[in-house]
């Protein structure tokens, strides 16, 4: 590039700056004249002179370095200034952005004695009662596999210490079919337990360990529990989350539910209750046991249900628990002595009955309470005192309000007429209780026994009605 006398810029690729009209010819080794283009021959106007700018790369680097240093220094200085300002503002009573850490000391939970008079916090109930709760692990067998080998089973549940010498209460379905029962205390001590007895109709059982000076629970009065009262449950959900506590309120204190065909009168609670909690204690706000956690509805029809837990009222089963501790079975369990079935329209049409609901009497055991009261084959029981009875389940539920020796009035349909019959409830024969207990401890079947209503059909169920209807309309209730 060079300047001519007219201050015009001209460009060339030649190192010597010669005119653009001259071009080096590689073939001849000399220069060849090139005709100027139309742009070069056009008249040129005045063009402002521009001086060439030389790039100073060293200066740029120095400048960039200085700017970086300035930015870093400004940031550091600003942080120092902000810190100083914030401290100054704090000292002057201004606001400060800071993480606040509480200096409150941890609250100590005192272990109180359950006296039934002083309400306790959840933490106090747990501290006072957790040593009375046990974890239960059961092993057994259930049938055989395709090779003829016994299938091993294992289950877990909860329980609570009833007496200081080792009697423990749990659910019947927790230990049903068990061959070995192992319990673990809160302190980690493990014991082998033996099954004293139980009753599947009430889902209660008693086991025993050889120990002394255990911490026993204090029983309360479940009749005093009100809807809305605070309750807590301690147990072993899922068999792994041992000695967990959940809390809630009593949603209902007299809820009738049906579990696998067996009616139960339950306390409904909002405590979180899951498999593994069964058999554990339900405490009131005074730390007293008012129920035995027994069942949880996890679904209803196609809907998922949460927040529903159930416990057996302790008042309903306490005398039975004492019977099991003494006799190995419930000695005062009410017993009628009939083979019952649920009445229906087909049976009414077949035998021209005017009633389509009730409990049909297939047979009457000789010498039983029903026999002494004058019940006969073909009678239909429609009421027990003031309680309507439409099915065998209704009769079983009504029986749970009585003990052996109690009196009741049955309303009975007989030969086209409605009559009343006075009865005195009998007790379950000892041989039948022993047989049921043995079958329950050796079976690995259903949760509440092999029979539809808790036992096998008796031999007396071989009459005209069985010929027509078989076993479709009921089972043995006792």
In short:
Helices cover 22% and strands 31% of the residues.
Essential attributes:
Pdz3 Domain, six-stranded antiparallel barrel, 22% helix, Thrombin, subunit H, alpha+beta, 478 residues
Q: Give the helix tally.
A: 10
* Percent of residues in beta strands: 25-35%
Number of domain units: 3
Span of the ends, CA to CA: 123 Å
Using the coordinates above, name the CATH class of the largest domain. Answer: Mainly Beta
CATH topology of the largest domain, by name, is Thrombin, subunit H
Residues in helices, as a percent range: 10-25%
Structural class: alpha+beta
Biggest β-sheet: strands ordered side by side in the sheet: 5-6-7-10-9-8
Radius of gyration in whole Å, from Cα? 45 Å
How would you describe what is shown here?
The protein is an alpha+beta fold and 478 residues long. The protein folds into three domains: 2-41, no CATH class; 113-329, Thrombin, subunit H, CATH 2.40.10; 334-469, PDZ domain (Pdz3 Domain). 22% of the residues lie in helices and 31% in strands. The chain contains ten helices and 26 strands. It has helices at residues 38-41, 57-91, 122-129, 172-175, 314-327, 345-351, 369-373, 392-399, 430-442, 464-469, and strands spanning 2-3, 9-10, 22-24, 31-33, 133-144, 150-161, 167-170, 178-184, 190-199, 204-208, 230-235, 244-259, 262-269, 281-284, 289-295, 299-300, 303-304, 309-313, 334-335, 338-342, 359-364, 380-384, 387-388, 407-414, 417-424, 426-427. The radius of gyration is 45 Å and the shape is elongated. The model is unreliable at 37-42 and 442-478 (pLDDT under 50).
């Amino acid at each position: 590039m060079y300047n001519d006398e007219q201050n015009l810029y001209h460009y060339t690729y030649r190192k010597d700056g010669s005119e653009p009209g001259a071009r080096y010819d590689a073939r001849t080794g000399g220069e060849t004249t090139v005709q100027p283009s139309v742009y070069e021959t056009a008249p040129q106007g005045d063009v402002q002179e521009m001086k060439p700018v030389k790039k100073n790369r060293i200066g740029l680097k120095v400048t960039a370095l200085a700017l970086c240093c300035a930015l870093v220094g400004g940031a550091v200085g600003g942080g120092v200034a902000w810190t100083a300002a914030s401290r100054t503002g704090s000292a002057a009573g201004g606001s400060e952005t800071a993480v606040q850490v509480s200096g409150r000391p941890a609250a100590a939970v005192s272990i109180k004695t359950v006296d039934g008079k002083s309400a306790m916090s959840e933490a106090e109930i747990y501290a006072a009662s957790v040593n009375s709760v046990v974890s239960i692990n059961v092993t057994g067998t259930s049938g055989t596999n395709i090779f003829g080998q016994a299938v091993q089973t294992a289950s877990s549940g909860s329980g609570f210490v009833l007496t200081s010498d080792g009697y423990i209460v749990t659910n019947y379905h927790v230990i049903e079919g068990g061959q070995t029962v192992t319990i673990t205390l809160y302190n980690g001590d493990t014991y082998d337990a033996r099954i004293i007895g139980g009753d599947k109709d009430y889902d209660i059982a008693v086991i025993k360990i050889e120990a002394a000076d255990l911490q026993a629970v204090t029983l309360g009065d479940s009749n005093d529990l009100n809807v809305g009262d605070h309750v807590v449950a301690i147990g072993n959900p899922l068999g792994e989350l041992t000695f967990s506590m959940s809390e809630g309120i009593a949603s209902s204190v007299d809820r009738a539910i049906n579990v696998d065909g067996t009616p139960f009168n339950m306390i409904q609670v909002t405590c979180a209750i899951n498999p593994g909690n069964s058999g554990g204690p339900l405490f009131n706000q005074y730390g007293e046991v008012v129920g035995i956690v027994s069942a949880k509805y996890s679904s209803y029809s196609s809907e998922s249900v949460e927040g529903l837990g159930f416990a057996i009222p302790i008042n309903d089963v306490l005398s039975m628990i004492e019977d099991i501790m003494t006799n190995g079975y419930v000695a005062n369990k009410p017993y009628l002595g009939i083979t019952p079935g649920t009445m229906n329209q087909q049976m009414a049409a077949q035998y021209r009955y005017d009633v389509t609901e009730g409990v049909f009497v297939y047979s009457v055991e000789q010498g039983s309470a029903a026999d002494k009261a004058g019940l006969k084959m073909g009678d239909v029981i429609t009421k027990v005192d003031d309680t309507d009875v439409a099915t065998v389940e209704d009769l079983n539920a009504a029986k749970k309000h009585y003990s052996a020796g109690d009196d009741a009035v049955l309303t009975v349909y007989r030969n086209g007429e409605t009559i009343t019959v006075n009865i005195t409830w009998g007790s379950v024969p000892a041989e039948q209780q022993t047989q049921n207990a043995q079958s329950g401890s050796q079976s690995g079947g259903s949760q509440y026994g092999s029979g539809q209503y808790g036992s096998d059909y008796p031999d007396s169920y071989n009459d005209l009605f069985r010929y027509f209807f078989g076993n479709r309309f009921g089972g043995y209730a006792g």
